[in-house]
Design a protein that fits this description.
Layout lengths: L10 H9 L7 E3 L2 E3 L6 E5 L6 E6 L3 H17 L7 H17 L1 H12 L3 H22 L6 E2 L6 E9 L2 E5 L5 H14 L3 E5 L7 H11 L7 E3 L4 H10 L5 E5 L2 H13 L4 E5 L5 E4 L6 H13 L11 E5 L3 H15 L18 H16 L3 E4 L16 E4 L6 H4 L6 E7 L2 H9 L6 E5 L3 H10 L4 E4 L18 E2 L4 H6 L2 E9 L2
Parallel strand pairs: 7-8, 7-10, 8-9, 10-11, 12-13, 12-17, 13-16, 15-16, 17-18
Antiparallel strand pairs: 1-2, 3-4, 5-6, 6-20, 11-19, 14-15
Length: about 500
């Protein structure tokens, strides 16, 4: 894959390209860009500067109705759902290629919209989206029905069919990639889609929709309605003609999606919600430097706005001080807040002023509860115009503290000491979340035992955030249910139909 590298342009060149960017701002319904029926618009702001980036069409219930109707019409026509599997594969493959070809445009859109460094977009998000569409394209002709063994007078087969119209509701932290994780399996299985991006990052989804049409995707198959959560998102969740909501976002809104389903047509719901990932560093860790490197990256990459951010650093008491010293040392150079359009920047601003204030509020709460700031804890000097928060580490944290229990979604790590494996597992599991966990040890028994005992959907041993598209991604407990990536996700966008034929 060749999405290019951010350093192919210098900071000035990225800014020049940004000022020449004319992003689409309307809704995309039935193959066309249209204004919101009520004519409303909302502002998307660049969190690095505080400047308004675009005024985006604010879809409401009427627009959701139009998008769902277009998606239903396209589904029923069979133009996509009954397309020969190979042909559908070809469209999605071509689509993946077009996303790759527009890598720098996507990089700019998401970087300007939510503050992510442009280099992260080219290293992580764009390749992640391309691979997602390729992977699910590859699954299309791997789905079989089944003929079962019956008595002689009967013939029974099971068809595997798409669900119909899938509503995808996604967050702002990886706008392109999270949309890809939801939209790709839905489309691959033959469903039609209405995507509701987060209001903080509405732009890249519109380019996605345009490119889908260029790839040969028929009108009505992939629709995008931007708007506020309580307007467009709620209308989609409550819609009587939507068959499934594939949701990624907070626990609170994940629960609302379940309520909406119960209040409307009992649509299927899958929810990928947040996390409070424990990274457990045992005294017998093979290489403390490597563990520290992954611990620093685990909490500071993407400004800490990551569902699986390794926010709870559970460190054996015997190596605690050494760990903290090494963590501090590496953090002096690894994640320095700066201009997201500088290819060397590794940390941008948080997504909005509200999010910045929320994270600073957690830092205050940590101090008040008695945790100690090892470094950071405020707004970086000279960057006050943007929504920046300095990388921050707390020590002396107890797991009952707010900063250890609640998802901060910012660059704030908390070190919690422990004395034995049993205590580490108890602390790890003392959380409403259960998305991911990591264990650093050289003892195979400890690794396997902990992997079984920790309540989380993904466990890493002697690594962090590793994996590929075959890996089921999703949580235990309130981190959600349903899985992203992996073949199981494709199947979750289908249903079985049993056909029993009496042979007379
Ligand atoms: P959020 O729950 O506020 O919003 C997510 C989406 O839901 C947005 O599109 C929003 O417009 C919509 N929404 C908000 N209120 C709504 C309502 N009342 N009715 C219907 N829709 C509504 O989450 P966020 O702040 O955008 O994203 C951060 C959260 O996402 C974090 O908790 C993070 O952990 C989670 N997340 C999870 C994963 C994962 O894979 N598990 C990945 C990325 C982000």
């Amino acid at each position: 894959m060749n999405v290019g590298v951010a350093s192919a342009f210098d900071t000035t060149a990225w800014h020049d390209r940004a000022s020449g960017l004319k992003p689409e701002t309307r809704l995309f319904i039935d193959g066309e860009f249209v204004d919101a029926k009520a004519g409303g618009r909302f502002e998307s702001t660049n969190p690095a500067t505080g400047e308004v980036l675009a005024e985006v069409s604010r879809g409401t219930g009427e627009d959701i109705d139009a998008a769902v109707a277009a998606a239903r019409k396209a589904f029923k026509s069979g133009v996509w759902s009954r397309m020969a599997p190979r042909d559908r594969m070809e469209v999605l493959y071509k689509y993946a290629g077009l996303i790759e070809a527009h890598a720098s445009e996507f990089a700019l859109l998401d970087s300007l919209d939510m503050g992510k460094p442009v280099s992260d977009m080219l290293n992580i998000d764009v390749p992640g989206a391309v691979i997602t569409f390729q992977y699910f394209a590859e699954t299309i002709d791997k789905i079989d029905g089944q003929v079962t063994n019956t008595e002689a007078a009967a013939f029974h087969y099971i068809l595997r069919e798409p669900l119909g119209v899938v509503g995808c509701v996604v967050p702002w932290n990886y706008p392109l990639m999270m949309a890809a994780w939801k939209v790709a399996p839905a489309l691959a299985a033959g469903n039609t889609v209405v995507l509701k991006p987060a209001e903080q990052s509405p732009l890249s989804a519109l380019l996605m929709a345009k490119l889908f049409t260029e790839a040969g995707g028929p009108p009505g198959v992939f629709n995008v309605v931007n708007g506020l959560g309580e307007e467009a998102g709620k209308a989609l969740g409550l819609h009587m003609d939507v068959d499934k909501i594939a949701f990624t976002g907070s626990i609170e809104v994940g629960k609302l999606m379940m309520v909406y389903a119960g209040q409307s047509n009992k649509k299927r719901v899958t929810t990928e919600c947040g996390g409070k990932t424990p990274q457990i560093i045992m005294a017998d860790v093979e290489n403390l430097d490597t563990a520290v490197q992954y611990a620093v990256g685990g909490i500071f990459s993407n400004q800490g706005e990551v569902c699986n951010a390794g926010s709870r650093l559970l460190v054996h008491a015997s190596i605690h001080d050494e760990f903290v010293e090494k963590f501090k040392e590496l953090s002096k150079t690894a994640y320095i807040p700066g201009d997201p359009l500088d290819p060397k920047t590794t940390m941008g601003p948080l997504v909005t002023r509200d999010q910045q204030e929320r994270v600073l509020g957690y830092i205050e709460a940590g101090k008040q509860e008695g945790a100690k700031i090892a470094f950071g804890g405020g707004v970086p000097e000279g960057l006050e115009a943007g929504c920046y928060v300095s990388p921050t580490l707390f020590t002396g944290v107890e797991n009952k503290m707010k900063i250890a229990q609640e998802e901060i979604f910012g660059p704030v790590g908390a070190v919690i000491p422990f004395t034995d494996a049993g205590e580490a597992v108890a602390i790890a599991n003392d959380s409403i979340y259960g998305l991911t966990a990591a264990i650093w040890t050289t003892d195979l028994n400890t690794a396997h035992k902990m992997a079984r005992d920790i309540e989380a959907g993904v466990i890493w041993v002697n690594c962090f955030d590793h994996g590929d598209m075959t890996q089921p991604w999703g949580g235990y407990k309130q981190s959600g249910f349903g899985r992203d990536k992996c073949f199981e996700t494709m199947l979750a966008h289908t249903q079985t139909k049993s056909v029993w034929i009496h042979l007379g």
